[in-house]
Amino acid sequence: MKVILVNGSPKEKGCTYTALCEVEKVLNASGVDTEIFWIGNGALSGCIGCYSCMNAGKCVFDDTVNKFASLAENADGFVFGSPVHYAAASGALTAFLDRAFMSAGGKLRGKVGASVVSCRRGGASAAFDQMNKYFTINSMPVVSSQYWNQVHGSTPDEVVKDEEGMQTMRTLGKNMAWLIKCIDEGKKAGVTIPPQEPKIKTSFIR
């Protein structure tokens, strides 16, 4: 069993990383393998709606999105972390998620997902809500904690001092490990994800 923790911050080892590490420690202690995947701080294009991925099986922009997609194939769960920028996920992570779910959504479907946000003061719940929508449009069980998955602080040292936030991260790790193991046992017993009906797409003009 493996969980990929995606660091969507432009800072490789800042506040978001600190929160993800707290989740990772509990997952490891619960027997779940992990990998922290940093999306980097270089230019990252948003989705251009070209639909090339529908035929090629990967995004036309060959960057960290495709690298993540190749790892996602063998993962059982995902934690996406982001700093809060203007009460939303970082622009880079938003572009990353748009393209990852467009081009590799099938590799994530049926696997557990969670989001973690890091902020100095406000906007955390808005960013948290934004990120969770990616899971609920892709048939992914959403892992919860004892509070919204957020930490506060301007530096990693300050985040560590957010005792409630750190506890929330630990509870998230425990709940994710538990749910992954439950799903694994279900598969062993012959319980699989329900088959997906062909999608019906309508618009509000008819």
Q: State the oligomer.
A: single chain
Rg for CA atoms: 17 Å
Distance between the termini: 45 Å
Class of secondary structure makeup: alpha/beta
The residue fraction in helices comes out at: 40-55%
Give the number of DSSP strands: 6
Number of helices: 7
Percent strand equals: 15-25%
Mind explaining what this structure looks like?
By secondary structure, the protein is of the alpha/beta class. The chain has helices spanning 15-29, 52-56, 64-72, 91-108, 124-136, 156-161, 163-188; strands at residues 2-7, 33-38, 77-85, 88-89, 112-119, 150-152. Strands 1, 2, 3, 4, 5 and 6 form a six-stranded mixed sheet that branches. It is globular. The relative contact order is 0.18. The mean pLDDT is 96.
List keywords for this structure.
45% helix; 6 strands; alpha/beta; 206 residues
What is the secondary structure topology, with strand pairs?
Blueprint: E1 2-7, H1 15-29, E2 33-38, H2 52-56, H3 64-72, E3 77-85, E4 88-89, H4 91-108, E5 112-119, H5 124-136, E6 150-152, H6 156-161, H7 163-188
Parallel strand pairs: 1-2, 1-3, 3-5, 5-6
Antiparallel strand pairs: 3-4
Summarize the structure.
45% of the residues lie in helices and 17% in strands. By secondary structure, it is an alpha/beta fold. The radius of gyration is 17 Å and the shape is globular.
